[in-house]
Amino acid sequence: MEAFVNRCTNETVTRNYKVFGMSFYGECFSKAGVGNALALFTKNLKDFSRCVSKDYQPCEAGDDRCIGKNAGVGLYQIVEK
Q: What is the domain count for the chain?
């Protein structure tokens, strides 16, 4: 899963986007012009049952990497240092 998250991160940075999501157990998507992940997906951010973590175990609060299942989104925001 970490390699997949890294590939999505790299592609997002290459396109100069700030936010990307991962869903359907492996689909990475991003969109130009989205700068605030919280504003875009606030409604679904606390429904951990829609995402999986390492070894496809259910996500829990505090997990640093999650991928959405068929009805969920693992959401990431690029933060500049």
A: 1
Q: What residue has token string 């157990």?
A: 25
Eight-state DSSP code of residue 16: T
pTM value surpassing 0.85: no
Tens-place pLDDT, residues 20-76: 888 888 889 887 776 666 665 555 556 778 889 888 888 888 888 888 888 788 888
**DSSP class of 57:** P
pLDDT of residue 45: 55
The residue assigned the tokens 């998507």 is 29
Distance from CA of residue 72 to its chain's centroid? 10
Segments forming the whole domain that contains residue 35: 2-77
> How many angstroms separate the most distant Cα atoms in the chain?
33
Question: Whole-angstrom Cα distance, residue 18 to residue 34?
Answer: 7
